[in-house]
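ENTRY TYPE: protein
CONTENTS: sequence, structure tokens:
***
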Amino acid sequence: MSRKNSSFAADLAAGIDLTSEAAPARRSGIATNVLTGRTNRLADLASGAVVTRTHELVDPARCRMWAGHNREYGLLNEQRCEDLIESIKAQGRQEIPAIVRRVVGDPNYDFEVICGARRHWTISWLRSHNYPEFKFLIDVREIGDEEAFRLADIENRARDDLTDLERARDYLRALDAYYEGRQKTMAERLKVSESWLTRYLDLARLPTELTRAFTETQELGVRNAIALKSLLKPEDRRERAFKEAGRLAKAQEEGGQPMPVLEVIKALTLAVDPPKRSGSPKKSGSTTTTVSSEGGKPVLKVEGADRKGVRLTLLNNGGASREDAERAIREVLDLYWA
């Protein structure tokens, strides 16, 4: 049927009186509306009001992880991806596409994954566990490394399943790779405060001689880094911390029983600053004790303890540093907190 005849049949089916003088005007109006709609759509695309994306369904085996990906792919397992596995099985498909870019010059892969390691692992796992029909949904982008890093960070920053240590190591790598070691520039690009970024970088910079004390290093968080960093100065305390870390690592390996993170930190702290050393608080009834820093500067005054609690005065004008104060408070907690 010709286009003219097809239009005639459509008008007839719609009940339009083709013999009336209004019929040609009606058909002209319909055509005008279609053309106007197309013109508006093109105008929206040109102005950026509408963004088009290229989504594809591909074999996950043809996708590799980007070298700068902020998640350690080798740590993914059925437990860490359980929620995603059940969601995709229930929906019958992957709902949210992973962000990828095309690979050039590698015959084994067509794409590399910028964001979506868990989705990639999950689809791969499902295909090998009785769901061969599932494919990997991807959103193909053309982006550089620094933009890819920021995009991945934005997507994963609020995710609980990405550990602080994974994120911290990614930040430390990116600091030199994209920002020439300029922490302020990096913080500005990520839209975060410099102090917030510093806490993650401190965690990533903890030496392995210290972190070996933890059987599950991925459980370390930015809050733990504050306590651990304070153990590394001066040199004699650092050496005692490393020695105790080695002892704890060996004891846990031989005993086959990992220690909780906070217990390891407490053991390291006690080894570095034994409670009986000069200047440490003593657990006495009403005696007032002043806790001093390594340099002899007063930090805390313990004014007695009873069943109601411990009375402390923070001597913030004594010349001690914040780290000295944090260390002194931990000593008091070690003595008095059950």
Residues 22-47 form the longest helix (26 residues).
